[in-house]
Amino acid sequence: MEAISPAIKPTLILPPRRTLRSDHALLSFRSFKNPTWNRRKIEVKTQAEKQLSSAQTIDFSDPDWKSKYQEDFEARFNIPHITDVHPDAVSYPSTFCLKMRTPVSPDFAEGYPSDEEWNGYINNNDRVLLKVIRYSSPKSAGAECIDPGCTWVEQWVHRAGPREKIYFKPEEVKAAIVTCGGLCPGLNDVIRQIVITLEIYGVKKIVGIPYGYRGFADNRLTEMPLSRKVVQNIHLSGGSLLGVSRGGPTVSEIVDSMEERGINMLFVLGGNGTHAGANAIHEECRKRQLKVAVVGVPKTIDNDILLMDKTFGFDTAVEEAQRAINSAYIEAHSAYHGIGIVKLMGRSSGFIAMQASLASGQIDICLIPEVPFNLHGPHGVLNHLKYLLETKGCAVVCIAEGAGQDLLQKTNATDASGNIVLGDIGVHIQQEVGSFTRSSC
């Protein structure tokens, strides 16, 4: 219930590091734009690149570099609070408690007394250690080092959870939920739980904005009243109760619409581009001195959101991917010198492809965006496929959609969210494999 910015701000940058997740996958946030109404871009990546450049200029000869780095890290990962804009904002005892309580009513004088003392709240100064492995050498498997000597540097991030003090009276809140981008398993579950949790706090006015950010400006789309009764069983259905879309109106138009509707709490469900938009909305609200909370919920099956161990929808994506892998394996195993190729989601990261490959146990080659590869040559993919056919008689390849884009001609086209339209690496691999096997096998 506190006023916070999106869970992942596009301007938050980790220092350069060696990891399976590529820096590009972690740091590149798509521009929030609308190809129809407005061509303006929110240049989030430019600011990110500036901060990355700053992180790369650490003076390791300075004996205090470690403490300075920690202070800089803490500052960059500081979560904005409602009191930053409204220092005189009044706080109230939290209305959230695990025990059943009497609903909020005008009978309460100036506050919301708890039923009894409850130690289930999170202190604002609580932190979670981001890195839990102390690598002794940059050559250690999976090493993530800041300096050449792989010095241990503590990196702490804010702990999530209910706070003892809140800054909105629940009866004065109008909360809105919006789902953007593509469909993702679990959207309805998240919508349902947000509504139920808001009602536990005592919020009565909850609405859904239809079809992403587009719903803020299209007069044909009316907001949907939400309550526990409305969302009770939506988790049993796929898709999104609110619908999804890419793109949308300008940030100014969105905030204008929020003011007109009286929305002072916005829950945004989406991925990189959606959160770039959420951050822009947050900044516009700060600029206008509005008492509005913008809360980001990371939604992407790609699992490529910074600081998230696992985004919702990822597990389901991996499970479904194994069905495709199993089908390709059966086809390849049943044919003479059969080769199965499975292309999976993964624009800038290969988590689905990697984990589905490991889980299935049927993949011989897994290609992901984080690891460059060559098709030709003695150490190329095609030469290894030839070896597999000679020794096993068949092979199965799993490839993330964003892998090997350097092998394809650039399209320079973008979708409604500003994402670059990728070339079809699956078709390219299929054609290359076909030509190679016909000539060499």
Automatic annotation (TrEMBL):
Reactions this protein catalyses: beta-D-fructose 6-phosphate + ATP = beta-D-fructose 1,6-bisphosphate + ADP + H(+)
UniProt keyword annotation of Nucleotide-binding present: yes
Cofactor(s) annotated in UniProt: Mg(2+)
Biological role stated in the UniProt entry: Catalyzes the phosphorylation of D-fructose 6-phosphate to fructose 1,6-bisphosphate by ATP, the first committing step of glycolysis.
UniProt organism field: Handroanthus impetiginosus
Pfam families: PFK
GO molecular function: 6-phosphofructokinase activity; ATP binding; metal ion binding
UniProt domain Phosphofructokinase: residue ranges: 175-405
EC number: 2.7.1.11
Protein name, UniProt field: 6-phosphofructokinase
InterPro entries named in the record: ATP_PFK, PFKA, Phosphofructokinase_dom, PKF_sf
Any one of the GO BP annotations: fructose 6-phosphate metabolic process
Enzyme class, broadest EC rank: transferase
Taxonomic superkingdom: Eukaryota
Cross-referenced SUPFAM superfamilies: Phosphofructokinase (SSF53784)
Keyword Acetylation: no
UniProt GO cellular component terms: cytoplasm
Keywords carried by this UniProt record: Allosteric enzyme, ATP-binding, Glycolysis, Kinase, Magnesium, Metal-binding, Nucleotide-binding, Transferase
